[in-house]
Request: fold
Amino acid sequence: MAYLTESQIHEMADAALTAYEVTGEKSRMGEVAAEYAADEFGVSATKSQVGYAVKLALTGWEGIKMAVKASVDAEFV
Reply:
């Protein structure tokens, strides 16, 4: 087991979010986050670390949706 910093887990989340934006497949987000940790940090992330990265990515996705909705609503008011 390797210790990953909060910053590294956020990087994993960014990779997972980008993959979701491109593919639309939530089921691959964990795989992408784990692959990112292996490729960039040379460690095998734990299930907990991968799960946390996916949660962060999904939270980011919700933020993007809210921002787009607010922008569209402001445009047509």
